């Protein structure tokens, strides 16, 4: 035993320095007493910092473990056995948490770190999954109801920057000339790189009459474009219809919202109130999708009862669905608005017009009508979003918008990163040379290599993946933006060709030539 009863064994971590023992720093060299005390003080500081880091790290572990345990219990309850928690990986996460808490240049709250970690974890899965905080939940509700104040843009995130999916017709953004595929790099003076999508949406919305400046990058344009927009109350009507010519009807679906199915049914009845139809055009161009049950309702409007519209396949039991043209698959409340449709709507010759902005729910409708040979698809290849997102509540008004399944058309086609190839290709001359599609998005889901696609083999109508985007040569300054097409107008080239097809007249393949007959795909 050494002085004061301390063991001198090297196993204790204590070693003598002159006549004294120091339990503080076993690696301090024997030197003058003042130097030794300074070294002890420095060592104590480092030890204190290390203890603080460990404490922060364990706080991180506790927070993350608590979160994962709660998710494991609440989200996956009644589905499948709870999955094992990856403790070793969580140690790395907690180490990063601790480093940030101790060493980052500014203090960061635990709440911010946890939420940012969750957001990054979810967004790294695919372009459509996201963590929804309370604000995002509110935006989701507003989005599906179709009424809000702002600019009229459907937006997503591309490489951390806000990307325009589609401008909404007859809104400030549409009238100003903002196009699908544009990248919004600044909102007023705020850069959007890394900005949460709900924050970007919040900045674009505001009091009607106020202005906002958007700075936009566009493919093929060598300099940013600046748009000064005045906010308006946006009350989106998802369905518009009219009689084009006697006996020929036109229905446009802009987006699949809560009442889209019922509104399409009203439009059909209004058209038939003027007399029997010889032909009908369903316009799904630049329709970014929306609610799955409403897509089923729209398809069911034109298909016979119980015809298969779409089926889905995922890992969980409730992701395996076969949705048919029956009321239990599209009604959420009230009576069946499709029960008293004119009988002729099930057989009237139809053309569905699509473009590169036709996505998700609108692709479900187009694919179902194509597979059942109920309609001829005309236009250009669609976007190719073949996945289903489910809202999973997490409590405290938060949730996950999580990709839970791929969907398949009735014949077994997956359009994921492929899209719907039209039966008749018609280019209106204003489709961008490089159109961003699902296959171009970072982290997009792979095309399934087995399952329904493999069983169906080379399914007819299966589309090729969208080509990779490449930088275009400098075209110089663009003084005038190309005019925007008003869908359904007298100048609508693709609508003209749809009418030509319904009447048996030649269909022109491109507005640029106006002379080349369109080629019909082999059925």
Task: State the main characteristics.
523 residues; alpha+beta; six-stranded antiparallel β-sheet; six-stranded mixed β-sheet; 11 helices; 21 strands; disordered N terminus
Characterise the protein shown here.
The chain has 523 residues and is an alpha+beta fold. Helix content is 28%, strand content 21%. Strands 5, 6, 7, 8, 9 and 10 form a 6-stranded antiparallel beta sheet that branches. Strand 17 (350-354), helix 9 and strand 18 form a beta-alpha-beta unit. Helix 1 (33-74) crosses helix 2, helix 7 packs parallel to helix 8 and helix 8 (292-302) packs parallel to helix 9 (361-371). The longest helix is centred in the first third of the chain and has 42 residues, at 33-74. The chain is globular.
What's the short story on this structure?
The protein is of the alpha+beta class and 523 residues long.
Number of strands: 21
Mean pLDDT equals 80
* Helix fraction bin: 25-40%
Strand content: 15-25%
Separation of the first and last Cα atoms: 95 Å
The biggest sheet, with number of strands, parallel, antiparallel or mixed sense and barrel status, is: 6 strands, antiparallel
The helix tally amounts to 11
Give the oligomer, counting copies of the same chain as homo and different chains as hetero: single chain
User: Could you tell me the radius of gyration in angstroms?
Assistant: 30 Å
Low-confidence region ranges: 1-39, 69-78, 450-483
Shape: globular
**Structural class label:** alpha+beta
């Amino acid at each position: 035993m050494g002085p004061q009863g301390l063991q001198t064994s090297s196993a204790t971590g204590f070693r003598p320095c002159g006549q004294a023992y120091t339990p503080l720093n076993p690696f301090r060299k024997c030197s003058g007493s003042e130097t030794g005390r300074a070294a002890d003080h420095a060592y104590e500081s480092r030890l204190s910092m290390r203890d603080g880091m460990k404490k922060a790290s364990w706080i991180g572990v506790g927070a993350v473990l608590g979160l994962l345990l709660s998710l494991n219990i609440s989200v996956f309850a009644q589905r499948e056995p709870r999955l094992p928690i990856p403790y070793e990986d969580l140690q790395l996460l907690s180490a990063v948490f601790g480093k940030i808490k101790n060493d980052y240049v500014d203090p960061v709250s635990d709440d911010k770190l946890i939420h940012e970690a969750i957001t990054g974890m979810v967004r790294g899965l695919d372009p459509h999954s996201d963590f929804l905080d309370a604000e995002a939940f509110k935006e989701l509700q507003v989005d599906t109801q179709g009424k809000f104040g702002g600019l009229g843009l459907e937006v997503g995130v591309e490489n951390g920057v806000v990307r325009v999916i589609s401008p909404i017709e007859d809104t400030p953004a549409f009238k100003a000339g903002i196009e699908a595929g544009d990248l919004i790099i600044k909102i007023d003076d705020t850069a959007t790189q890394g900005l949460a999508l709900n924050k970007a949406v919040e900045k674009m919305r505001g009091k009607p009459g106020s202005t906002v400046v958007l700075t936009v990058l566009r493919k093929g344009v060598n300099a940013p474009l600046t748009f000064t927009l005045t906010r308006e109350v946006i009350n989106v009507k998802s369905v518009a219809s009219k009689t084009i010519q006697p006996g020929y009807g036109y229905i446009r679906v802009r987006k699949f919202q809560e009442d889209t199915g019922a509104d399409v049914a009203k439009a059909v009845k209004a058209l038939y109130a003027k007399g029997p139809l010889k032909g009908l055009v369903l316009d799904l161009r630049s329709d970014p999708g929306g609610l799955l049950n409403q897509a089923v309702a729209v398809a069911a409007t034109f298909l016979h009862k119980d015809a298969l519209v779409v089926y889905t396949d995922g890992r969980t039991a409730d992701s395996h669905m076969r949705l048919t043209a029956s009321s239990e698959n599209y009604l959420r409340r009230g009576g069946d608005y499709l029960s008293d449709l004119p009988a002729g709507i099930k057989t009237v010759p139809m053309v569905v017009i699509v473009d590169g902005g036709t996505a998700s729910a609108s692709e479900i409708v187009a694919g179902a009508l194509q597979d059942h040979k109920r309609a001829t698809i005309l236009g250009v290849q669609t976007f190719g979003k073949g996945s289903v997102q489910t809202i999973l509540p997490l409590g405290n008004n938060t949730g996950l918008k999580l990709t839970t399944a791929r969907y398949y058309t009735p014949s077994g086609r997956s359009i994921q990163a492929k899209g719907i190839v039209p039966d008749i290709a018609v280019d209106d001359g204003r489709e961008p040379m490089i159109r961003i599609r699902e296959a171009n998005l970072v982290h997009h889901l792979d095309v399934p290599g087995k399952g329904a696609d493999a069983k169906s083999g080379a399914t007819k109508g299966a589309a090729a993946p969208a080509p990779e985007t490449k930088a275009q040569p400098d075209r110089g300054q663009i003084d005038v933006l190309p005019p925007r097409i008003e869908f359904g107008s007298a100048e609508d080239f693709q609508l003209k060709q749809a009418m030509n097809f319904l009447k048996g007249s030649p269909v022109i393949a491109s507005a640029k030539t106006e002379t080349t007959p369109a080629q019909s795909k082999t059925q």
